[in-house]
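Catalogue entry: protein
Contents: sequence, fold tokens
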Amino acid sequence: MTPLFIIGDRTSMWAIGDVREMDLARVHAGQKVTLRVPAHPEAVFEGEVGWVSGQTDPATHATALRCTVPNPSGELEPDMSGTLTIATSERRLAVPASSVVGRGDDAVVFVLAGEGPQGTLRFERRRVRVEYGVPGDWLPVVEGVAEGEQIVSSGANFLSSL
């Protein structure tokens, strides 16, 4: 029997999101995305960017995008919230969030500065600029440390109090 009409085909869903203005140059239609939703914390849904708006919101400095995500199992439902991650070919330096310590208006990390007496290690406190608000346990570094430098990733709060 052929249906008269279909209310909605949920075998493919749209995920609507925003891209920060500073990241807009790295996002374009066709890029692969992953979607995670709190309702299914172990599931990772894969799709792609289908459309990027040509206008940036002046209040939020973000640009809307629409991604198409296959939903053959029907786990995704309309109006679910989630987190979209867009795969880019650009490599960016990032540090563990646990390594960044706030000191007033500044953020610092502790960089290995060499050996001290009797084989002890010396660490240098260094101001960094990182991008907060990025999902996950890593923060992209804007400035302050270079690739290959060793930093304290656990116990940085203890060092900060010394």
